[in-house]
Structures are given as structure tokens and as C-alpha cells.
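Revision sheet: C-alpha cells.
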Amino acid sequence: MDLYDATIPPLKRLTDAVPRLLACLDDPAQLEARLAADSFSAAEHFCVALGYVARTVMPLTGDEVPEMPMDTDPGAILALAHDMRFLLDQLDRAALNGADTRKITHIAGEAELTQSGRDYALLYALPNAQFHLTLAYATVRMAGAKVGKGDLDGFHIYSPGTSFVSDTPLN
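Predicted:
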């Protein structure tokens, strides 16, 4: 599988998930929720996840990543999802030619890393994008939004009231 097919379809699915998840909010205040006091809010996780679209693609094409907005208003998050999807839709497959071996130097927390384009995309950028989207999902769910797995992945369908809570211990 080439790098285009390994990165662009999952990033498109990520940009499509954000509007589905936001549509499930009962109250915009659910975006302010945090899983822990020192963690990002759900809104910030959405922004970071969407920022990883540009942070994934642009280094692979040899372009500078612009400063990404951290506007946590629901409308701004939807606009960012739209903008990131537009970026992906405009990307020509040929733009990633040679990206597998391009050396990409970036910051991960406080670490400076240099990776091949393939390792950067598949081992760093895509997992981080999905991490932040999943934490946004978990945070709004914890805050009471009626979101389910299908809203996150766009595949699953469950009957209303389906529960995975069991009295049987997991061990």
C-alpha cells in the first residue's frame, strides 16, 4: 500500500467523524469537559485531531505546517473540519511521491524527532490524530453526550439502549 492510500483515506474519515460527533452534543458546554484536570478539553482535542490532518500531510509534501487554530467554538471546529477535508480533497496523489523516504524533523512534546516520511505518518502522525479524536469522543461521552461507536467510526450501528455493561468480571 502506498503512503497516499495509507494516510489520506483515514484522515478523510477523521474529518468526517467530527461533524457526526458534534451533532450528538446536547449542550455546547460538553465541549468544555475534561477527562482529567490537567488534560485538554473535548473541544481542544477536536482541534488538535483536526490539526494533525495538516501536520500529517504537509510535511509529507514538503510544505510548512501553518499555525493551526485552537478556536473551541463548535462552529469554528466544524469550519476547521471542513477546511481540513478540503485540503485532503485537493491533494493530488503525486504530491506524496517520494514522501516515504523524506526525512521529517518534528517536535513530539518536548522531544525533537527525525523520522522517515513513512514512519512519521504511520507511527507518529496518524496515531496521534486518532488518539486526540478518540479522547474528544470519550470526553463528550463522559460529559453526557449521546455518542456511540458508530458516531466515531462511521461503521457500527447498534439498537437504541444497547449496553455493554455486564455483571461478569472481566478477569
